[in-house]
């Protein structure tokens, strides 16, 4: 058995915070393999003094702890509260009867509260007497907080002088006499000092010398993908650090414009949808022209959508999400660039170059690479693009400009020129907030190809090439737009090269990639940004459970299982759309819903399931993995207005929706109370539960779960239930499990797939 003891002294005024800081990670520490004891002791004579005690089965367990995120997080929590303790540091110790050199003796005794004053009067005299004993060095009196248990922790030159002293009753009683009544019932342990070849601590402070900052999750990249991850982690109380190498946020409309309907639903959940609507404009439809002739026009204002398609420049998206993250106590560290990282079984150690040119080391349990098309995380993981990174042969120019023409407001416009079935001209115009303002993408003039000197231009924006002029824009409009169209007020322009591809894997150990770090698309409908947001919307709740020790072993694997097929499909669809008039002219409405991620399903995921007696009876009800549709018309006693289903499922936990109509027996309903309690236990408290009752059902006298009336039977119609049934809705709004009728054992088995460690 190996013991470590770290002495620290709380800064003035910080004493009350030391205990809660230690308790924050005590549960995680105790769950580590090989941990035998973890305790924070107080100096019984100094209110500012503390000692962190850990005991381990062997040195391998200690080494894993020291190199892992729990030790780093503990250091990160205690460091701001403490100064280096005065006096010698305790070395690494082994409890054994053999060994040479100094020994430490831990005498555990009980001092009742009503006799504490008596003990404190006698103890200083004992210490004074002990100083004359050969071989005795020093001791510290510690106590267990909230307990009457004390520890006399003494250092001796070696085992021989201690054993000689303790073996002579006369000597022992002579020195220990003033506190002898308290020594009748004691526990004594002897420790020898052992070499610590793996000691990475500073010799004075005790903190790990090479770690400057600790966090649960390091997010690399402060774009929409990284900000979404950080917001979702912070909403769940997970400590995260967001870094971005750009010193200032972008201010040009050079990236995604369209915000998909599903993203708007996510933003409602995150509490930013109103700000987004206030800053954007509605994209109400699209029109396509081929060789000057309109081939189709479609309205995007479809019935049944929770939100329409919003036009919002990505820099506004980042501003809104950054502000929301600040309300959760997290601010991105700008001008901080990831240099490199390594990972081990317990965490990730990253080297970060800071804005002042220095470097710092960050230790995290997990790392999320949301650092864009030129991802450093992707590079360091050695991820490759499946089939290679595809590049369009053309150069394109992108401009933010005013356009004077007679076109319907809010419409995305595509003008194509085809010769012998091949596209040789393209103009895509997306409306921006402001009168006649558009973001236009079109082929770059030939002179930009000449500027490359015949070399292959790199993907993304080209800083080496000249900026397109208003004349370049006007020339494209003259060729492709309606006659008489005029451009003015050029705000920004650049030349770029389209690349596309998807990486071979989304995860390597404790490191994940998301957004453009994982998949690159042609700029068709803002797919890159919206898909990246969906990536970390899927990942963050799973990471939060893993950090808290509640995740089943396969939960994090489901991120790649669920998101990579979606990324692969979107990349392929965007490439097909980039050079054609339309992919599916036969069903434009379904195509639009697909583009808006409203049809997204994880039906193939091993993380979803069902037990349904008659699947046909459920009809078109959402299947496991499908997005859980919202319904309204629900009623709850004491609430003067109807509720939406989203009012019940909103939050950071799973939601168990039990259903019963008038055919359900009293015994079935009564059993729901135990089922909900069991589900919460299996999920470590990470489940909310409700009973939705048909209007004809009698309301049971249940304290749990809360009862909500499906007053207009809209839940029953949308979810296809009859008799009794249940739906388990995941925190990302997708159906995790459904049962018809209710099958408690099947639900428990499913919960083990998600919350295996919560047992």
TrEMBL record:
<dbReference type="InterPro" id="IPR002938">
    <property type="entry name" value="FAD-bd"/>
</dbReference>
<keyword id="KW-0274">FAD</keyword>
<feature type="domain" description="ABM">
    <location>
        <begin position="2"/>
        <end position="90"/>
    </location>
</feature>
<dbReference type="Pfam" id="PF03992">
    <property type="entry name" value="ABM"/>
</dbReference>
<feature type="compositionally biased region" description="Basic and acidic residues">
    <location>
        <begin position="623"/>
        <end position="635"/>
    </location>
</feature>
<dbReference type="Pfam" id="PF01494">
    <property type="entry name" value="FAD_binding_3"/>
</dbReference>
<dbReference type="InterPro" id="IPR050641">
    <property type="entry name" value="RIFMO-like"/>
</dbReference>
<dbReference type="Pfam" id="PF21274">
    <property type="entry name" value="Rng_hyd_C"/>
</dbReference>
<dbReference type="InterPro" id="IPR007138">
    <property type="entry name" value="ABM_dom"/>
</dbReference>
<feature type="region of interest" description="Disordered">
    <location>
        <begin position="615"/>
        <end position="636"/>
    </location>
</feature>
<keyword id="KW-0285">Flavoprotein</keyword>
<dbReference type="InterPro" id="IPR036188">
    <property type="entry name" value="FAD/NAD-bd_sf"/>
</dbReference>
<dbReference type="InterPro" id="IPR011008">
    <property type="entry name" value="Dimeric_a/b-barrel"/>
</dbReference>
<protein>
    <submittedName>
        <fullName>2-polyprenyl-6-methoxyphenol hydroxylase</fullName>
    </submittedName>
</protein>
């Amino acid at each position: 058995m190996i013991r470590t003891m770290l002495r620290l002294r709380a800064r003035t005024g910080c004493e009350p915070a030391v205990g809660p800081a230690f308790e924050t990670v005590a549960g995680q520490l105790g769950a580590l393999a090989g941990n035998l004891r973890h305790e924070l002791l107080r100096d019984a004579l100094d209110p500012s003094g503390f000692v962190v005690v850990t005991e381990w089965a062997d040195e391998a367990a200690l080494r894993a702890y020291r190199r892992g995120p729990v030790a780093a997080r503990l250091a990160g929590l205690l460091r701001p509260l403490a100064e280096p303790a005065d006096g010698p540091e305790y070395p690494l110790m082994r409890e054994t009867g053999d060994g040479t050199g100094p020994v430490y003796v831990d005498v555990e005794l009980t001092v009742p509260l009503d006799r504490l004053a008596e003990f404190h009067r006698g103890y200083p005299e004992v210490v004074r007497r002990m100083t004359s004993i050969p071989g005795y060095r020093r001791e510290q009196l510690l106590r267990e907080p909230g307990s009457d248990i004390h520890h006399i922790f003494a250092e001796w030159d070696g085992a021989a002088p201690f054993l000689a002293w303790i073996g002579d009753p006369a000597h022992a009683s002579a020195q220990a006499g003033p506190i002898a009544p308290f020594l009748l019932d004691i526990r004594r342990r002897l420790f020898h000092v052992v070499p610590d070849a793996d000691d990475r601590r500073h010799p004075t402070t005790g903190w790990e010398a090479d770690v400057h900052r600790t966090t649960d999750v390091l997010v690399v990249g402060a774009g929409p993908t990284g900000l979404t991850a950080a917001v979702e982690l912070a909403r769940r109380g997970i400590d995260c650090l967001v870094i971005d190498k750009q010193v200032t946020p972008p201010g040009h409309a050079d990236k995604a414009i369209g915000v998909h309907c599903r993203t708007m639903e996510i933003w409602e959940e995150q509490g930013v949808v109103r700000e987004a609507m206030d800053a954007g404009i509605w994209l109400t439809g699209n029109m396509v022209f081929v060789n000057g002739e309109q081939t189709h026009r479609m309205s995007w204002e479809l019935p049944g959508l929770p939100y329409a398609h919003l036009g919002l420049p990505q820099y506004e998206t980042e501003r809104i999400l950054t502000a929301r993250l600040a309300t959760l106590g997290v601010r991105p560290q700008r001008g901080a660039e990831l240099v490199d990282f390594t990972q081990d079984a317990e965490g990730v150690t990253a080297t970060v170059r800071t804005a002042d040119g220095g470097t710092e080391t960050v230790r995290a349990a997990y790392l999320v690479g949301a650092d864009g098309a030129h991802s450093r995380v992707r590079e360091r993981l050695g991820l490759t693009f499946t089939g290679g990174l595809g590049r369009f042969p053309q150069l394109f120019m992108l401009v933010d400009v005013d356009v004077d023409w007679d076109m319907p407001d809010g419409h995305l416009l595509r003008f194509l020129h085809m010769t012998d079935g091949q596209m040789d001209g393209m103009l895509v115009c997306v409306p921006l907030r402001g009168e006649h303002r558009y973001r236009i993408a079109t082929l770059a003039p030939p002179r930009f190809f000449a500027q490359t000197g015949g070399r292959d231009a790199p993907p993304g924006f080209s800083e080496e090439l000249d900026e397109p002029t208003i004349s370049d824009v006007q020339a494209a409009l003259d060729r492709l737009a309606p006659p008489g169209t005029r451009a003015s007020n050029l705000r920004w322009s650049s030349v770029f090269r389209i690349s596309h591809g998807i990486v071979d894997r989304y995860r390597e150990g404790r490191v994940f990639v998301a957004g453009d770090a994982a998949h690159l698309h042609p700029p068709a409908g803002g797919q890159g940004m919206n898909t990246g947001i969906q990536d970390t919307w899927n990942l963050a709740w799973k990471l939060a459970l893993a950090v808290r020790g509640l995740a089943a072993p396969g939960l994090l694997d489901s991120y790649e299982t669920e998101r990579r097929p979606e990324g692969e499909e979107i990349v392929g669809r965007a490439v097909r759309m980039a050079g054609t008039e339309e992919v599916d002219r036969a069903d434009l409405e379904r195509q639009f819903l697909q583009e808006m991620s409203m049809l997204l399903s994880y039906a193939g995921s091993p993380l979803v399931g069902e037990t349904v007696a008659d699947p046909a009876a459920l009809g078109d009800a959402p299947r496991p993995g499908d997005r859980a549709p919202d319904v309204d018309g629900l009623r709850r006693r004491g609430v003067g207005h109807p509720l939406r289903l989203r009012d019940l499922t909103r939050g950071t936990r799973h939601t168990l929706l039990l259903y019963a109509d008038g055919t359900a027996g009293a015994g079935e309903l009564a059993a729901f109370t135990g089922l909900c309690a069991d589900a919460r236990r299996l999920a470590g408290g990470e489940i909310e539960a409700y009973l939705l009752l048909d209007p004809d059902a009698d309301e049971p006298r249940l304290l749990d779960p809360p009862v909500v009336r499906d007053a207009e039977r809209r839940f029953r119609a949308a979810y296809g239930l009859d008799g009794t049934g249940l739906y388990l809705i995941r925190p990302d709004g997708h159906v995790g499990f459904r049962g018809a009728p209710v099958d408690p054992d099947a639900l428990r088995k499913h919960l083990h797939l998600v919350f295996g460690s919560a047992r």
